[in-house]
Design brief:
The structure is a single chain. The chain is mainly alpha-helical. The chain contains 17 helices and two strands. The protein has a two-stranded antiparallel sheet. A hairpin with a 2-residue loop joins β1 and β2. α1 packs across α4, α2 packs parallel to α4 and α15 packs across α16. The chain is elongated. The chain starts with a helix and ends in a 10-residue tail after the last helix.
Length: about 425
């Protein structure tokens, strides 16, 4: 069994044990403060219903937190010590039971549409909420927290710091599980998760804190009031994701222009983009760097449209260096007219330069493009293509990129990323 499977199994198993313990304890002892449990449960269920499911682009492996309102509601329930001035009595196991039950209720419509559930996401939610509750509820119920911090700014700061620590734990756990699923390097995956905390993650932490404090002062009426800012943030993120998806679809359509015109083999651009992304991940690229790499790989052959006679099978790797350079410059000029970041055009323009003069994304695109041009469909062709690339490492291909490509291919090529 692979170590990655052991890691994922351990996370899922721990979440399952906590869930069973939560339901068993709640059924045995009953529900404390059912009104609060129902209110927070409804909030979490509605948050899951409103989750987004937009497919991430290569540079954004995960959709990050797909249900921010549900996440904020779950964290607020875990950090709830008072309600309208009265001390609450729900415990850690009841918190887990309510969060799981409400989450399952909210994802039923998604299951009916064939879009869920994501077991990794559910396991992370259970573990992070359990972590926050264990760090807060026993200390608060014992009276130690209010004795030393009171109910003023120090108490609010403690809640905020605890939520930040919970978010960091979730980022570490998310990167670890994605590493187990994809076998990508852990460092770039963790950087991606930490960057996400600066976006919707920070809004979730802030909203969770405000909800807990608002309910402590004003009761359950604070729930809908303090969820409005996060709801508006979610709508803005959804629109941003729609724009990014539209841009990517436009670029993918442009990339097919060379295939439709008969200049390149069918699927060539998408194969190069997918394999370039895997190599880039292995070399430590993340975030916006991977987005630039994907767009450049999709459009790397766009300059061939300027040719009067197509290159046989679109194999630009077999052309003289000066002709490769001319096609690359023409392609870069076209890319600059599409509205994508200028860094994409730079990669396209410099893909035919000696590798020592290229940025890393251009080195990756050049090597992967040459491999796809040379490999063909047979295993023998793939081995021969890698050997030719290794023989060209004096000028054309960086040895590190070639060997990374070989490792990716040895693992079976591109590893699918679980939906987020």
């Amino acid at each position: 069994m692979r170590p990655g499977a052991v890691t994922v199994g351990a996370v899922h198993g721990t979440a399952l044990v906590l869930t069973v313990a939560g339901f068993a304890s709640t059924l045995w002892h009953g529900i404390d403060e059912p009104g609060h449990a129902l209110a927070f449960g409804v909030l979490i269920a509605l948050g899951e219903l409103a989750r987004w499911g937009a497919p991430p682009v290569l540079g954004e492996l995960r959709g990050r937190e797909p249900a921010p309102i549900a996440a904020a509601g779950a964290l607020a329930y875990a950090l709830l010590g008072e309600s309208a001035g009265r001390i609450t009595t729900h415990g850690v196991l009841q918190i887990i039971a309510v969060v799981v039950a409400a989450g399952l209720a909210g994802i039923v419509p998604h299951i009916a549409r064939g879009k869920g559930p994501d077991l990794d996401h559910l396991a992370r939610r259970i573990l992070t909420v359990a972590f926050a509750a264990l760090c807060f509820q026993p200390l608060y119920n014992s009276g130690g927290l209010t004795q030393y911090l009171g109910q003023g700014p120090s108490y609010a700061l403690y809640l905020l710091l605890l939520l930040v620590l919970t978010a960091l734990c979730d980022a570490v756990l998310g990167a670890l599980m994605l590493r187990a699923r994809t076998r990508y390097p852990y460092g770039p995956l963790l950087r991606d998760e930490l960057r996400a905390l600066l976006g919707i993650g920070s809004a979730v932490c802030a909203t969770g804190t405000v909800i807990a404090l608002g309910v402590a002062a004003a009761g359950l009426w604070a729930l809908p009031v303090f969820c409005v800012p996060l709801l508006l943030t979610q709508v803005s993120f959804r629109r941003y994701a729609a724009v990014r998806t539209t841009n990517r679809q436009t670029i993918a359509s442009l990339a097919r222009a060379t295939e439709i015109a008969g200049y390149t083999a069918p699927g060539h651009a998408h194969r190069v983009a997918a394999l370039s992304g895997a190599v880039g991940r292995e070399l430590g690229l993340s975030g916006s760097e991977l987005a630039v790499l994907e767009y450049a790989a999709l459009m790397h052959d766009i300059g061939q449209l300027s040719l009067v006679d197509p290159v046989p099978e679109g194999a630009t790797a077999l052309l003289p260096a000066e002709e490769q350079r001319r096609i690359a410059l023409l392609g870069g000029a076209v890319v600059r007219q599409t509205g994508v970041p200028a860094a994409v055009a730079v990669v396209v323009e410099r893909q035919a330069d000696p590798y020592r003069d290229q940025p890393l994304p251009a080195r990756i695109v050049r090597t992967v493009n040459a491999y796809d041009d040379l490999a063909g469909d047979s295993a023998g062709g793939a081995l021969a293509a890698l050997e030719r690339l290794r023989l060209s490492t004096a000028r054309d291909h960086q040895p590190k990129v070639v060997e990374t490509l070989a490792r990716v291919l040895a693992r079976g090529g591109v590893t699918p990323v679980p939906p987020g």
